[in-house]
């Protein structure tokens, strides 16, 4: 009898809380448009940084090796990176490229330019299946 009462209480509580959990993921069309517009603004900034020779010191830009974000494969990170000798995140490889081919200084992971670069790269690869660890 006690088990039945506890079971009924749990079911009743879950049913009562269900509308609250459903509402947590509901967004208005206006919210979605605003957020998409903000994302696309950052993607545009990423394109600018990706083609900005001031990111490094030698005039080389990311887009010279990776036109339109090509051959960056953000969908495969985290993964083992031979250049670093360990499993790395995408931002770490962005900094490797800034340090080496561009002869520039690392960006902090929370630098708005890093966010913009990562957003641009991810946008260019949209629709590609996520496959962390793949080479």
SS content category: mainly alpha
Q: Give the topology string: H per helix, E per strand.
A: HHHEEHH
- Count of spatially separate domains: 1
Strand proportion, as a percent range, falls in under 5%
**What's the alpha carbon Rg, rounded to whole Å?**
22 Å
**What's the mean pLDDT score?**
89
Helix content: 40-55%
The count of helical stretches stands at: 5
Q: Looking at the structure, what is the overall shape?
A: elongated
Q: CATH topology, which one?
A: Cytochrome Bc1 Complex, Chain D, domain 2
* Annotation, overall tally of beta strands: 2
Distance between the termini: 58 Å
Q: Trace the largest sheet across and list its strands.
A: 1-2
The CATH architecture comes to Orthogonal Bundle
Main sheet?
2 strands, antiparallel
Considering the protein shown, what is the CATH homologous superfamily? Cytochrome c-like domain
Task: Give an account of the 3D structure.
The N and C termini lie far apart (58 Å). Strands 1-2 form a two-stranded antiparallel sheet. The chain contains 5 helices and 2 strands; from the N terminus they run H-H-H-E-E-H-H. It is mainly alpha-helical and 135 residues long. It is 53% helix and 4% strand. Helix 2 crosses helix 5 (112-124). The chain is elongated and about 75 Å long. A hairpin with a 4-residue loop joins strand 1 (79-81) and strand 2 (86-88). It has helices spanning 2-24, 29-50, 62-65, 90-99, 112-124, and strands spanning 79-81, 86-88.
